[in-house]
Amino acid sequence: MKSIPIGSALLLAAGLAVAAPAPPDPPLRVVTSTTDLADLARQVGGTRVRVTHISRGYQDPHFVEAKPSFVLELRKADLFAYVGLDLEIGWMQPLLDGARNAKILRGGAGNLDVSTAIPVIDVPQGNVDRSQGDVHPLGNPHYWLDPENGKRIARLFRDRFSALDPGGAAAYDANTLAFEARLNAAARGWAADLARIKGKPVVAWHTSWRYLADYTGMRIVGFVEPKPGVPPSASHLAGLILTMQRTGAKVIIMEPFYNRKTADFVASKTGATVLIIPPSVGGVKGVDDYVALMKYDIGAVASAFR
Amino acid sequence: MRTLLVAVIMVLPGADLVAAQNPDSLARAREDSLRIVRELQAMGRRDTAAGQAPPQGRGPVNPRLLPDISAVGDLVADFSPKGSTQENASRVGVREVELQLIAAVDPYFRGEFLAAWSDAEGATLEQAILTTTSLPWGLQLRIGRVPLPFGKQNILHREALHTIEFPYVIQRFLSEEGLKANGVVASKVMAPFGFYQELQATVADRFGEAPEDLVAESPPSRTLEGLGYGLRLRNYWDLSESSNLEISASGATGLREQPFAVPVDDISATLVRQTLVGLDVTYRWRPLQQGLYRSFLLQGELMKQLNSQDVPPNYEGPTRDFTGAYLLARYQVGRRSYIGARYDWVQDPEAGGIAHQAGTIQFQFLPSEFSKITAAVERRGLKGEGGTTRLLLQTTFAIGPHRPHPF
Question: Looking at domain A190-304, does it have CATH number 3.40.50.1980?
Fold first, then answer.
């Protein structure tokens, strides 16, 4: 008796599988280097793009492994969007070489250096060499942490998506406007947090929080890293502790992928709070889109000053 | 990181004492900590002064279209108790300096040159490669002098290895410095079974390095049969977000000069087919969130050298097959330090097939991505004979543009 319902179920399932139309392929396949760009691409592209990303939000985007499985995503991509300013220099080129996809190589219509839409800060002046640490000669690449740059990125996606898929131009335009409205509404919500943060001294682990500092008005008075990418020495930490005591900095901001023991040690000497906040979408549970990321980070910094 | 923390804990409690004793050094430390902030603030002012100018106004970053130029130094010191084991018997030497130039040639090709200098061998051209960038169907051609795609480590530059020297099975069956091939490598990436696969086929002028002291009646490449041919199939799986596995198979064959017992009319060698087959396995683990501080790699390669039994009279070359393998483990103990060990076993063709074994342990310290210091202790020897101990210290450093991280 049991075989009848099972057989029926299988037949029904098979029938449904045949009857159900396969979802149509979206016009654009987009691969981004980071989760932040991926979310912004989704916001702008809506149902007309299929977006995947390479790094994770809780991973240091400088040190992504160039796994061959990423090549499989890239070889079919219509567009590869990346942060640029050498953020992905350690892993992007082997993946692009492996993908053998002329569309997304430099110079191709599907190669999008997002930094071209950004007013970049921290561009080194004069001679640049490795004695300055793992310096980014073209400027600070962590620009997505300023919501104004989030809007610039969305507009850049709108323009490029429209060029690659002219039939979707109106949808991309509408989606971009909707995203900006959502972000503006969220910004009105965190205005009180900004007022609390403005002018407050903080210490950051890496230069990745410079754009957020510019947006919020917090003052970064020192870095745990003596130079970008260089772990701190004892003498540097001693100097940093004195700097914090002198300036009254009581918050150390760092990413979840650094070892917090060093920051905890500095905090124990200064009475500061170690604030671990995500630099990217997906960096902590619940921060699943760009607006949520900005809201979470700004709220967390403001809370540290309550 | 634990080492760093211990150092910090040891140093910092004495900071007040240091301040009392040496105010100058403390002032310097504070100055150091503030300098980067001032520089960034100054840059910010300049950027702001630019009035958030339209970013489209940025000019090209390389207006003269210069290639990326980088150089790598590879220095090796040999403190082995019974004398240096280096090729030129030096205790401290420049094993190699590499100069590399890479650039797009045109919309269809990328060009790469790699020249090397060493104390032992002088100047050599390591690589000269023209790589296609726009072939259809996922195809790619690499034309010129290329590392022979055989096994996992042979394609690496020696200074980029996880160990100071190539595993002995590669040194004995391929070359001490990894085997290059003058020819064409065609490759295709595919995923017919849902995972990454890459097939690489090589046609080369010859298989193996040309021997300096052997002269055959004609070069191996005189006939198509004598060219070098290779095939490699890579298979890669993501086991989880943090771990992955690669299992690949390789084969290469060609005619090679093998010695006569007695030279005939200045002809000291004959051409005999030699084939090499291999299997390599690599397991990697790196947790994404703590990937700056922890990782693990386990790698092994098994190779078999097949020599022809059908040989002419007066032949003194190998008439048996040889097998060899290695197993390598490397664990990251901190942000800048690794420990590792390797076991080598190879039926040594130069010793009539007697097993040559070696065990190595090593410690690596990477001050940054651009420099590396490796200290290794190795015990090696032929089976049945007394072993020797080697103490090696290697320093490598790179200047120039940021190179891709090895994977």
Answer: yes
